[in-house]
Amino acid sequence: MRTLMMMGVWILVTVSVTVGATVSGFVRDATNGESLYGANVFLKETRFGTITNEKGYYVITGIPAGEYELVWSYIGYLPHTMIVSLPDTADRVESVELTPKAIAMEAVEVEADKEAYEVTPSKISLRRIDLKNVTQVVEADLFRAVQALPGVATLSDFSAGLYVRGGSADQNLILLDDIDVYNPNHLFGFFSTFNVDAVKSVELQKGGFPARYGGRLSSLLNVYNREGNRKEFQGVTRLSVISSSLTMDGPWAKGSWMVSGRHTYIEQLAKALNLNLPYKFYDAHVRLNYDISPTDRVSFSYYGGNDRLRWDEETLDLTLDWGNQNGCVQWTHLFNSRLFSHFVLGGSRFKSDNIIGLTNIEFKAYNKIDDLSVKGNLSYTPSPAHVLDFGFETKMLDFVFLRAASDDQIKFSYEGTYHAAYIQDNWQVSPVLRLQPGVRLSDYSEGNYLTVSPRISAEYRWTDKLATHLTYGRYWQFLNLVSEEEIGGAADAWFPVDETLKPGFADHYICGVKIGPYADFDLEIEAYYKPYARLVEFSDEFGRSAIDNDNTELGDAFRTGEGNAYGIDFYLRNRWQGFEGWIGYAWGKTIRQFDDYNQGKAYPPQYDRRHHVVLMQDYQLGKGWRININFKYGSGQPTTLSSGRGPIMDGTGRIIDLAYPGEKNRHRLPDYQRLDIGLFWTKHFTTWSIEPYLQLINIYNHENIYIRQYDTSTEETTYDDVTMLPRLPTLGININF
């Protein structure tokens, strides 16, 4: 608390309220009334300007009296200008709606104003159209789009896990409308839980995220639901090989609404093919907005999704059941034009319930995490040089973990409370230098852990088209995930820290350069270094012996070690000659080391990819036709090869040979590469449109290895490679109305 108070005093000393005129308001899309996040707002030929926040709000303060040309601009939209005459003490409200351009992106005029930038290290924003332009294995998927960004690795074609700059999947803070999502997987990791038609935009911050966010060591993924069309009713339905979805939205009273649902028919399809696959999933998004007054808006959002596999055979009774529920009420309030606030009350639940019944024994694994959260985020703009962000977060957490075999069981049950407060200043030191100092204090009740997380970023603009930045931040994590990647979420189990298991922390060091924006491209290059302390991994020994131990503590269930990750990312966003998309390259290395594992030797985790190349392009062919081309290359992921074989006794008393693992991840599988092409045709009618599509996955049928398995049933040990997706055509149809 002392650190936070010192930071606050320092800011109060350095910040003074500037007199002069103020202009504020909201920026929205003219076609549907949705807020536009990141729009530029500036007074032409002056140093006064800003960008809109996630609610579309902006404020410019300290403007001398006079007449100005006020400009609102957003990429892909027609700019809007207005001549304004401002007295010295004016407090003027100007909310506008921008019209999307109906022409190709290469004709977009790029407006760049150096005062309108904030310090945003490692941040990449994806619009809904970007999510849909990544080739769909079956249907558009949010996580597949994120995995196509440089610096984001994945384990396989079947995995929706995000491994960002050497971090594990549980080190990502995933938020849907400001509330945590703990298990974002469908179909054993093949899909993410988010229906892209319900999503407005996605922001990935690969490191160095600001003081407002905490609780994870690696990255931040912010997913925003659509608010709903405030102008007219609209909808879209999609039919793919294994699922269908329907999304509708429209205006009501003083606001808007949006509902979206998706359901699979895999079980029915399998029956038609004379196969037994009793699996299904569903998800639903709901959003309701109400404008109480020009200064008060409330919204309610809900997400629910579930997967279930129920296999009832004579010798095997298998039930895998897992899912998320997530909901919140949000209140946006303007105390005055300079003080913006946003409050959230919400909850999140992840639950998995798995039963495996054999002839003489039944195994059960149950895990649940309940999260009730209250958050407040405020932004105060005392002068053109300062924007102060401050707020708080409180979580009441409830964890249950149960593992049982017949009458023996082990159970962890914990309740914990997490509190955090932060303050941060976005300080324009000079026309070319911006600093963003901040600090976050966190407290977790189980273990009485009080942590301090300093954050600071600096950006220097050499020209309107060239900037460099430096970032440092410390990040803490108070819960850990045990996941079986092969069954993608069905067996996920979250564990908190306590007196016997201390929280891990990581330091982020980032330096980078941004070139642009130009009409044809933007380029970002970043180098990073992340040392980790108190990394935790689930203990294999505990997993094998836990059922017989009645006095197990959390510290016994995990091993603790250290590690580091470092590398460099290149991200080129292009709008050139009709092509729109991005090209990326990442070089990275990550290492982990545990004293009581792998003979104490450091090793790369399975998701360590030395080289990663991505190319995502969309091209309008004309007459309603478009094509997208996606290519991914990755150097082979680490693997553990056998060092020999020997006899063991199995559960039935038989003596069998088993391949003994060698040094952990000392070798690598062959390189990964995949080329996908999609062809789309859109036909517009008076009030609706139809878009059938055909896509070819892995066009040249490259055999990407998923798992290497050893066969010791013969005298000579051999191995078989389980490969990922072969050449695969998919088709579907989208209908907009």
Structure in words:
This protein is mainly β and 737 residues long. The protein has 2 domains: 2-116, Sandwich (Immunoglobulin-like), CATH 2.60.40; 225-736, TonB-dependent receptor, beta-barrel domain (Maltoporin, Chain A, Beta Barrel), CATH 2.40.170.20. It is 6% helix and 59% strand. The chain contains 6 helices and 48 strands. It has a 22-stranded antiparallel beta barrel. It has a 5-stranded mixed beta sheet with strand order 9-16-17-12-13. Residues 103-116 have low confidence and may be disordered.
What are the key terms here?
single chain, 737 residues, Immunoglobulin-like, 22-stranded antiparallel beta barrel, 5-stranded mixed sheet, 6 helices, 48 strands, 6% helix, globular
Tell the overall outline.
globular
Total discrete domains: 2
Enumerate how many helices there are, as a single number: 6
CATH topology call of the largest domain? Maltoporin, Chain A
**Unreliable stretches covering 5 or more consecutive residues:** 103-116
The oligomeric status of these chains comes to single chain
The N- to C-terminal Cα distance equals: 54 Å
SS elements, strand count: 48
The CATH H-level superfamily of the largest domain is: TonB-dependent receptor, beta-barrel domain
Report helical residue fraction: under 10%
Rg, Å, rounded = 26 Å
Structural class: mainly beta
Mean pLDDT: 87
CATH C-level category of the largest domain: Mainly Beta
Strand residues, percent: over 45%
Under the CATH scheme, which architecture of the largest domain would be assigned?
Beta Barrel
Largest sheet: 22 strands, antiparallel, barrel
